[in-house]
Amino acid sequence: MAGSHAGFARRRVHRLRGGVVECVEDVVAEEVPIALVYNGRPHVVMMATPCDLHDFALGFSLTEAVIGAAEELESIEVQALLEGIEIRMRIPQACADALEARRRNLTGRTSCGLCGAQALEDALRLPPRVKSDLCIDAAALSKALAALHERQPLNQATGATHAAAWANADGTLAQVREDVGRHNALDKLVGALARENADFTAGFLVVTSRASYEMAQKAATVGVGVLAAISAPTALAIQLATQANLGLVGFARGGNCVVYAVPGRIAQLGRESSP
């Protein structure tokens, strides 16, 4: 597993199509265990696509409130092991002590990012209220969605990955990251943006998945004003978004959408609906 990863592997498969069997080479997404270690202490193991790992490490550290700013991640070392990949990070001791106090020992999977939380307060961490005053036009959302398909090379090759994209207020896509896990893709995107010192209040997020509680939690934690998902949100995600002043949009497809929280962030719904 040493060296760089493209995020996919090639495998010989038997394909049945139109009653004809062929032995062909297929492209499949990679999924490996990735251990995140802070100051020498294991914190979490995530099943993820092994690319953009420095972005992943920084983004996870920010969206999970392990650190409060990108510069607090003092170092990152990616080590390939027989069993998977280990990402070793150094953070200020005060951050490490606070992390230990949370007493979390998570095992994450592509379908669930809260597995293993030991207490309700660990899983249902309410982020500070979003301070962004962003209000976007529905046309900007449509523009971002229309451009997203062509910015997902890994999914086009494998059909097995999610994407998280960052759009400027006018809907122009600036960054996209992919992963087999929807929350991993979002973490990678946040990490990439943080490396560029991006202003999280000045644009919006688009994700090719449902808007789960964790996705809303991660977006609000870094101060994003709008999260738009291609699929539906959950009731808990709507509750968090409302409390955190996060605009939450679901079923964003083909020029249509449903706004579930903070409708004033979509211009067509009127500023009188703003919090």
Q: What report would you give on this structure?
A:
The chain has helices at residues 53-63, 93-101, 120-123, 138-148, 153-158, 182-195, 213-221, 235-244, and strands at residues 8-17, 20-29, 32-38, 41-48, 75-80, 85-90, 106-107, 162-168, 173-179, 203-207, 226-229, 247-253, 256-261. With 275 residues, it is α/β, with parallel strands linked by helices. The chain has 2 domains: 32-123, Ubiquitin-like (UB roll) (Roll), CATH 3.10.20.10; 138-273, Cytidine Deaminase, domain 2, CATH 3.40.140. The strands form 3 sheets. Strands 9-8-10-11-12-13 form a 6-stranded mixed beta sheet. Strands 5-6-3-4-7 form a 5-stranded mixed beta sheet, with helices on one face. Strands 1-2 form a two-stranded antiparallel ribbon. The longest helix has 14 residues, at 182-195.
